[in-house]
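Subject line: Sequence and fold of a protein, written as structure tokens
Enclosed: The protein record, placed directly beneath this head.
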Amino acid sequence: MVIAFCLTGESPWGNVVTTILESGEEWNPDVAKVALPQHLPIEDYVRKIIEICYSEDTDTRPKAAQDVVDMFFKGKQNPYKSEPSKAEFFFCGFLTNTNIFVADSLVDETSEGYFRSREIPKGYPKNCLICEVQVKDRPYHILPKLIEEWEYYEKYKERMRYFNEQAAKKVIENNATIALKSLATPREGELEQQEILLKFAEGTYVHHRAMRDIWRQLSDSEREQLVPSKSQVNQAYSTSFGLHVAVITADDPPKFLFCRRANRVGMASPKEYTCGAVESVSKKDCFEDEVSGGTCVSLLNTASRGLEEELRVELVGNEVDAICLTTVYMKYDTHEWGMCGFVDLSDKRIAPERRLKYTQLQSRFTGGPKDKFEHDLVEAVDFTLDSMMDFVRSNFMDFASSGKLVVVKVMQSFFGMQRVENAFRSVDPSDRG
């Protein structure tokens, strides 16, 4: 009854008053029970627990709470600690509650890491990173069908007015954005090469902000109806696509760059740590494809542009092929899609003069006007497992959610999946003894 009350807000015995009991009249004992909702979280367990505790048969009814624990919450049967429930969203060690869903990744459990195998980590093939963009009726604002019946339409118009005013005041920039509208992961051919097929559509930043606000107001059940499978792209609510590229310097030992976002008006998540450069795909990255006759976008060019604009890391010509993009993800709390990976500046595909060390990058970053950059701090950490773990343990509460995913995926690519997982699960050295 307590569980049912917590789920529904209805009190047991809510329709039974004292006078009925005192009168001695016959009454149906079922009125004491709270009617259960049709859908329950972790339905099989919750419904079974309530029904068995409601049982009129004393032989089947648990005698004490410990009996319930023994029946339903021992070992692998505990639904609140089961791996499938956890694995729906990204987690590694104590980096939980990120609301990041990994839709596809080339970093798998068999990876031993570059430092052991000496096999350079591979990203998605270049042809997968040149993607079709729908630009009909630009700016292309996709809204739910039957717009006149959309219950959030008035709220959407109100948010659009507000953000347009913000753009007019130059608080935000209403740039043309590129949003993910379709995702497929074909596994065809004898070798089953892991590829990904992405399709995009043009929109505007104001529309992106308005739809993001609507998504944030939706209940969990509403979100689940809109996105029954989290690898499914909802065309109305998916309004942006970001590239998150970590940077590993050409030092010996190499260094991993953490950046802290500046605290300025219009800046997303100020004072949070990110890894390397974060850049949204925009109209700047589009080009007319001579083969298809349509508009396309190069995700490698977007990543390269972000590295140059945010960190002054410049890649020329085919040097952009050194950027390794390995993972597609969705930030479920905002329904924003993205792809992440890294660039190793010691890569032989990069010309020697652009294989930058941290001191060179630091002087470039601090040498320009501060308001040009999205960050107010660039911090370098030795790219060793121990040093990275020390930094992450000390600062992960200040990480942007996608930053947690990026740092773990890059570490797994270089140090190996199992070593990284074991390191996260191990005791913090400062707590020993």
Summary: Residues 2-77 form one domain. Confidence is low (pLDDT under 50) at residues 75-86, 429-433. The first strand starts at residue 100 and ends at 105. The chain has two domains: 2-77, 92-431.
